[in-house]
Backbone:
DNA sequence: CCGTATCCTTGGAGATACTG
DNA sequence: CAGTATCTCCAAGGATACGG
């Protein structure tokens, strides 16, 4: 039934678990990566810890509401650390946890893939659109 | 201003381009990866080329509409190849292109990350939820 | 400064029915 | 078999205003 040799299946071991499983699903994690704001927040924090207002300013189009929600999610998963200083005026700093940094590394390789193939994809799209009319 | 040494910035070279750029955006590609169905279709096709109805059967919850839309997107980007045989009844086979396979490899490493850290994340969530109440 | 609360809109996605 | 065509719904997300 398999047209390709069965050994090829081994290339995508994790794929078998993409559809279900216990605990945090692969799907949930891929969702976070695919999420527009999560990835931008993580990328922005990769350089340096930042305050809430700095993040807000650094990421155009990101509303306060979504920034808060995104940070809570990342914090809950242990990807981002939140430290509030009891000062006046209040100061809160967000930074990547070690776990967050490992995710960043992995996502970066995906971003690198995108950079490496963006021209090829653009060409593919153009010829597809031309053929489709 | 940077709290971490500047050399750390180099770890995420592509991050600088996550927010803009010409041609297909990094963002668009991450969206595709984060997309529920795209990734399942790609993962399903990793084993063997498949027909439309096979894909439909193989991925529970995927409607015809979304399957068609997803396949078109993947095809347009050159990630998936579509071959229609002039037979009765009609037969159409979908398969990963070489480009699609390279994406699969990259995404697999992300899925592997998810597998490697799912327990840790689950623990993080539990303690966060406990602390939050 | 760092958020929360509320309203409101939009487009993504399921269900269903139909065609080459 | 392999799609297309509508209709509908609902929840993600923006805008705005307010609170600790």
Residues:
């Amino acid at each position: 039934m398999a047209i390709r040799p069965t050994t090829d299946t081994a290339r995508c071991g994790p794929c078998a678990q993409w559809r279900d499983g216990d605990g945090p699903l692969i799907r949930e994690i891929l969702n976070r990566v695919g999420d527009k704001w999560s990835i931008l927040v993580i990328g922005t924090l990769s350089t340096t810890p930042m305050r809430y207002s700095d993040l807000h300013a650094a990421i155009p189009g990101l509303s306060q509401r979504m920034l808060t929600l995104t940070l809570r999610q990342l914090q809950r998963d242990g990807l981002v650390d939140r430290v509030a200083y009891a000062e006046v005026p209040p100061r809160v700093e967000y930074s990547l946890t070690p776990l967050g940094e490992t995710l960043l590394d992995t996502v970066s390789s995906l971003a690198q893939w995108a950079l490496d193939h963006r021209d090829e994809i653009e060409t593919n799209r153009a010829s597809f659109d031309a053929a489709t009319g």
DSSP finds five helices and three strands in chain A. Chain A touches chain B through 67 residues (CB under 8 Å). Residues 1-10 of chain A have pLDDT under 50 and may be disordered.
